[in-house]
Amino acid sequence: xxxxxxxxxxxxxxxxxxxxxxxxxxxxxxxxxxxxxxxxxxxxxxxxxxxxxxxxxxxxxxxxxxxxxxxxxxxxxxxxxxxxxxxxxxxxxxxxxxxxxxxxxxxxxxxxxxxxxxxxxxxxxxxxxxxxxxxxxxxxxxxxxxxxxxxxxxxxxxxxxxxxxxxxxxxxxxxxxxxxxxxxxxxxxxxxxxxxxxxxxxxxxxxxxxxxxxxxxxxxxxxxxxxxxxxxxxxxxxxxxxxxxxxxxxxxxxxxxxxxxxxxxxxxxxxxxxxxxxxxxxxxxxxxxxxxxxxxxxxxxxxxxxxxxxxxxxxxxxxxxxxxxxx
Length: 327
Ligand SMILES: NC(=O)c1ccc[n+]([C@@H]2O[C@H](COP(=O)([O-])OP(=O)(O)OC[C@H]3O[C@@H](n4cnc5c(N)ncnc54)[C@H](OP(=O)(O)O)[C@@H]3O)[C@@H](O)[C@H]2O)c1
Fold this sequence. Notes:
The protein is built from 11 helices and 15 strands. Helix 3 packs across helix 4 (about 150-165) and helix 3 (about 120-135) packs across helix 9. It has helices at about 40-45, 115-120, 120-135, 150-165, 175-185, 195-205, 220-230, 250-255, 270-285, 285-290, 305-315, and strands at about 1-5, 15-20, 30-40, 65-70, 85-90, 95-100, 105, 140-145, 165-170, 190, 210-215, 230-235, 260, 295-300, 320-325. The radius of gyration is 19 Å and the shape is globular. The chain has 2 domains: about 1-120 and about 295-325, Medium-chain alcohol dehydrogenases, catalytic domain (Quinone Oxidoreductase, Chain A, domain 1); about 125-260, Rossmann fold (3-Layer(aba) Sandwich), CATH 3.40.50. By secondary structure, the chain is an alpha/beta fold. It starts with a strand and ends with a strand. Bound molecules: NADP nicotinamide-adenine-dinucleotide phosphate (NAP). NADP nicotinamide-adenine-dinucleotide phosphate binds near residues 122, 146, 152, 239 and 264.
């Protein structure tokens, strides 16, 4: 089959189209003929050598796909060859065929094209776990989402609004991206490049601290974010692009009962991912089917042009998802 792999670590030019054997499947897996594959920031982190595939997982990048099941292991429940699915996978999406755990296959919401379906799993699993599990976002609370027009950010805005009636404040770099975040339901969008962004977030929240923050930056953002939380607030860290070390005021953390929670999807157990998939089908898939929620596809590239897709990611041009057309 055709696949794209990283030949070494570095900038997007290390991505190469190659021939690889079609993957075998285990008892709990299905083989999917991939129609479209999502491109996610963690793929770029893997390309840089900073996010290796977990043990036993293929080195082919790609964490979500949409396509048709062409073969099933012995223990895949109700899935059958011919079913059309989107799936969260631990790796291997940049290829014509991918093995997917049956537990993390989801039906394609009615009316969605394959490229739109491929844009869903990684961002929906991520946004759901960060907001609902790690962030424990409750009804009527407020949330700050750093990078509101990332795929994860747009999913989180819509889930927070539709499922918790939350007040949603986001950050984004350009006026165009801030307008897009507001069009997707953010109550306010702030430019994170100005030094007083925390003051602006507080102002946008009626002068109050926020209850939950989702952040993939870490580093020097962490003390500023802790100061911005309301009493009992939760800072959910899902990345550390600005640095892995932060200084925190422990006394303030104790006094105001703040929590810092790290959260990751890829290395979770299959049982945990199965439970998340069930929550998504029950709570989020109806919103997608009704068109109340959508994840926009910013650009698509043929599989062989994965390098161009990654250059676009490096330039941070996308608002929403970049997708590879595989067929
Ligand atoms: N822990 C997990 O399980 C997990 C899973 C998936 C993704 N992630 C992380 O979640 C984030 C979103 O993923 P994605 O694939 O949807 O990403 P993406 O589309 O590549 O978006 C990255 C976002 O980061 C924003 N950003 C860059 N510098 C920033 C700064 N200094 N302050 C605030 N925002 C900044 C960008 O905003 P502008 O475009 O406005 O500059 C952009 O919206 C990524 O950082 C990724 O590493 C974590």
